[in-house]
Please model this.
Amino acid sequence: MIVTIEDISWERVFLRVTYRADKPAHLKLFRVRSRQFVEFRETLEGDLVTAVVNITQGGGREPLSDGEWIICQQLSDEQARLPWARANAPYLVTLAKKRLWGELKPSQVRRAKRDGVDYAAYPFTDEQIDEDIRNRPFTTHNIAYSPQLTEWLGDLSRVFRYVDGKYALAASLIPSMDASDYLIVKLAIDYFVKNRKPQTRRFSLRQMEKNLFSLYYKLARKVLRPKDNVVLFFKENGDEPTENLAAVRDRLIERGIDKEFPVIERYRNTFVGHQNLFFWIKDINAIARSRYIFIDDYCPVFNFIDPDDDTVLTQVWHAGVGFKSVGYARFGISGSPDPYQSAHRRYDYALVGNGELRDIYSEVFGIEQEALLATGMPRLDHFLDEERQAAAEQRLMAKYPWMGDGRVIVFAPTFRGAGQATAYYPYDSYIDYRALWEMCERTNSYFVFEMHHFIEERPEIPSAFANRLKDLSDESLGDLLYVADVLVTDYSSCFYDCLLLQKPVVFYVPDKVEYSATRGVQRSVDDMAPGVVCDTSEEFVDVLEKAAYRSTAPDASMIDRCSEQAGYAADRVIDAVLLEKEVPGVRLARNAS
Model:
């Protein structure tokens, strides 16, 4: 029996859960860390079941212990075994394998991936899987949540202060996705002691490392203090500059300004593997030598290094405004930045498409609107250049001749997960390879995967479908858009680039409710998307089959980065930041609200 929870509320210290059913579903809370269940007290009136738990008596005469408690149903001893799970609940086996996969050593995972083996094919023993299921004898897959409820779960947090406000118990309802991408809800219990100095961090080896790096920067700054206007282009999530960084760098050199502003570059991925101390020292030395620093995307080194007053740190942010929440717009959600020690707070300037976006990015970066420069995106300066388009099309057509034989559908979704370290895309849940292939066969189309660079796992396209389904994730999305007939995305901002080319966009969002609840969105896809919105795989394939997107013309008001269409964004950045010129429209007017 699947129950849909319609309401969750608080009445003093009682957490109240309401759902409709013919009989009670025996809901419980389960704490994985201690393998402990706590029962809800359930009453049935008509078809309405009310389940209540007192958080001050969750452990008998003690309150609920700290940690995350999953709203679930308990399995019997027979059900919490591998034979029953295989026969009746295969998802329990999938969850167990994914958890065991996560417990493997990094070297084991790398070796398995090299051999083309994933979590599903890894040779876990039946004993390992059985033990994992027995250690987590619960299920959440018979519990669903109404879409209206998931939208405001974040508003249900409560803080209970006690002992004259010196201590507090915080209770939060947290929507999350389990390893099989099923929406679950956790009750997070945290205990706090009053802290009059919230900026102060408790001592830890990690914090000591950061303090030492910060001290080293200050010493290096004194020794390596720049005698000229050194410009550093810096990135921590890849080995190559982003298009925005490259555009500013190249234009600086084209104008001959690099003689007055010498350029140095540091690009590496600090989000994967063990980071060698030598490379950290080289990064910090480069930062210490520089008077101007341009970065793109999140650079965690600036969480603990605060550039001094005569250093200008500029975030050239590669993306426009999509739908997903980023930065401080995610505050309070998993992956949100520290309110005190965050790289975002260090920016002297950050770039935006135009002045209309200052309000959004002020929230994202947690900085004042005056620090946001409406320059446009430098990477788009030559995006509409006919020669560039022709060269890209010629290169791609020569490399992939099939692009000229039929309709090209480019699929470019954003990642799931809190950030680069945990980024993934749930292919198994959202991609029906056979249905897409059959649609492509009937319509003479090619479906091109262009996955976000954070996502390590590529789509496993069956060989039988490889003539129509292609993984071109190593290609530039900008170049692929030139040959695309239609773009498919979800919460990403890449649709803006497609609109500039006056091409249609389809939004495939099968996890719209779950994504909004767990990741957060700044703008509603349903309300703001300039194209057809598809909630299911069947609807998605049908829209592509019938080319139904042709009847939905992009709203011109959605192209809210109009200043970029005129080009010269890189010049505006150079003039405003390096040459300190007053560039019309770039800085916030003093009388602006």
About this structure: Residues 233 and 265 are 5 Å apart (CA to CA). The longest strand covers residues 167-177. Residues 206-343 form one domain.
